Amino acid sequence: MLSIDVLNSGYKPIPPGPGWDVRLPATWPAGTSTLIAGEHDAILIDALTTTAEGNRLVTWLRQSGKNLRAIAVTHGHFDHFFGAGPVLDAFPGCRLIACDQQVVDEARSQTAPAAMARWNALFPGQLPPSPPVPTWTGAADLDVDGSPVQLRVIGGADGMLATIAYVPELRVLCSGDIAYNNIHMWLWNSTTESRKAWLASLDAVAAFTPTTIVTGHKDPDARDDAAARVLDQSRRYLEDFEEAKAVSGTPRELIDRMLGKYPAFGNRHTLWAAAYSQFS
Predict the structure, then answer these.
(1) Whole-prediction pTM value?
(2) Does the N terminus or the C terminus of the chain have fewer Cβ atoms within 10 A?
(3) Which sequence spans correspond to the domains of the chain?
């Protein structure tokens, strides 16, 4: 029988962008890493962002007592794999993998000099100088002590190809950034077309009929991981953003309309960035 355990990074402070209300903290959204474990072996889904978070993962994983065989990266955004280095060092034989070459290519693009300059400006002194990049497995399934974990390509979400990990035995799905849980969704530079594609990706996730969805970004105080609630919430957020954008003339109007609907959601800086990108 497999088990699931989740580590939440919490919010990390970042420098605020132009126009941000400096009376409020600017933060990076809380992220998750999910351990899928059998009696002896385990795999990890995503590996957070900073070197310190990678070291935190090592301590957490060692406490599990499992043999970590692989870290599967759901998509190529840097905050899902830059923390993998300490884990790979601590668990010889562990592989950093993805289930599609496009994920690998997009992850590699995050380590280019210009991209690294952007990430280091957000997290000065906190990132590895040469982050490891996943490799393509060429396979659609992993085996954990005889139980399957399905890796599947889904489609578009928050700017990169989105894949998921599904555990049929438990009906648990790790959604990466396709779904969010009580946290503002990353809609920076999104368009009507990309938001439609994102809604289609949510439908594709729902087709697995999971009972539990572990989202790539989750407010630490979110009440549960119930799949029906998480999917409905993510759909409504995308639809509400589309409607709010259509009737807003400025970023501030768009932000205020969304905060009126989602006043308690975490990481308002994400909404701010999304709103300003729609009017630039």
Answers:
(1) 0.96
(2) C
(3) 3-183+210-226
